[in-house]
Amino acid sequence: VVEFREFSDDDLQKMQEQATKLLQEEIVQSAGTVSLNLSSGLKVWSLVFNDTFKSQLSNLKIFCLSQNGTVFNLTFGDSHAKVKFDMDAQFRLLGNEIASYTPFSDYTAEDLQLMGRIKNLASNNRYRETFKELTKEFVQKANNRVEPNSAIEVNKGDASLSWNNETHSFSIYINGLEFDCDEPHAWHILLNTGWFEVYVAKLLAQFFSPDNIRLNCLFKTKTDSAKNEVDIIVNTGEKLIFVECKTQVYNTTDVDKFESVVRTYGGLGSKALFVTYHPMKGEALEKCNEKRITAYCYPQSNNLNAGDKNRQMKQMLDKLIKEWNTK
């Protein structure tokens, strides 16, 4: 049986009364084993519960889990090695379960090949602007469809982008380049710069297990409605890395919104990584430094080989993890 109780956060006497009342309840007195998890609250709660329960229960065991994953046994006065949780366990402890997501391990080799094709299309001067206009109008039409399963077609001069719902495939024609795509995750890769999220996830999968990388993570409110989406969340085994992916940052509010989402759903123990295709500059970069968000742009220059680029990324990730919660 799992029960959730709310306690005062601004009245010490009321906290003590609530803790004493809980101790006297039948569920505590009659049960063989009772576990209390004090989360998302004040440090003073731990002191109040320690004083209240320790004086009445001789077999009480008290553990404290730090934001860095170290377990402190306050009963015997020692500490344990860092505890590793799966991602779902970590979010349950934080009180914010993920409503839906796509594991990176679900992306097929064909998906990744398509990502490479769309990446080249979106970054090539010959196709970039037309592709951007086509996908933007396509998303608008898709969102305004009366029939959710109807076909969609968008034209810009000689260029076109269409969706066939019967074959679940796209057809693309831009400046002499023509191809169809029916890969399992084609919709996500093709639209809303989803290709860049998959590109970043593929880079991260060089250092973390694909099963520990989740894309399009949706969190829900208490009313069970979708609230916020995180592009990528990585479970390092000890901590979570929230990853925001944007080809380019035009507004510093993007940084503020990301920081708020990480703080709300990841707590103080999670880390924020903002990855861009084009280097972040000016006010946006200053805002990241102010919010303790790591800004990173995977080098696109041909002056570095893939091995050097990956080593640079690994150094960034190692530094990111090493600097967690040093206070």
Order of helices and strands: HHHEEEHEHHEEEEHHEEEHEHEH
Radius of gyration: 24 Å
Low-confidence stretches: none
Strand order of the largest sheet: 4-9-10-11-12-13
Strand composition percent: 15-25%
N-to-C CA distance: 36 Å
Number of beta-strand segments: 13
Helicity range of the residues? 25-40%
Mean pLDDT over all positions: 86
Task: Profile the largest sheet.
Answer: 6 strands, mixed
Shape: elongated
Please give the count of helices.
11
Label the structural class: alpha+beta
Strand and helix map with partners:
Elements: H1 12-24, H2 26-30, H3 43-54, E1 63-65, E2 70-73, E3 78-82, H4 87-94, E4 98-103, H5 109-123, H6 128-143, E5 152-156, E6 159-164, E7 169-174, E8 177-181, H7 186-190, H8 194-204, E9 213-220, E10 226-235, E11 240-246, H9 253-266, E12 271-276, H10 282-290, E13 294-297, H11 306-322
Parallel strand pairs: 11-12, 12-13
Antiparallel strand pairs: 1-2, 2-3, 4-9, 5-6, 6-7, 7-8, 9-10, 10-11
Describe the structure.
The protein has 327 residues and is α+β, with helices and mostly antiparallel strands. 38% of the residues lie in helices and 23% in strands. It is built from 11 helices and 13 strands. Strands 4-9-10-11-12-13 form a 6-stranded mixed β-sheet, with helices on both faces. A 4-stranded antiparallel β-sheet has the order 5-6-7-8, covered by helices on one side. Strands 1-2-3 form a 3-stranded antiparallel β-sheet, with no helix packed on it. β5 and β6 form a beta hairpin. The longest helix has 17 residues.
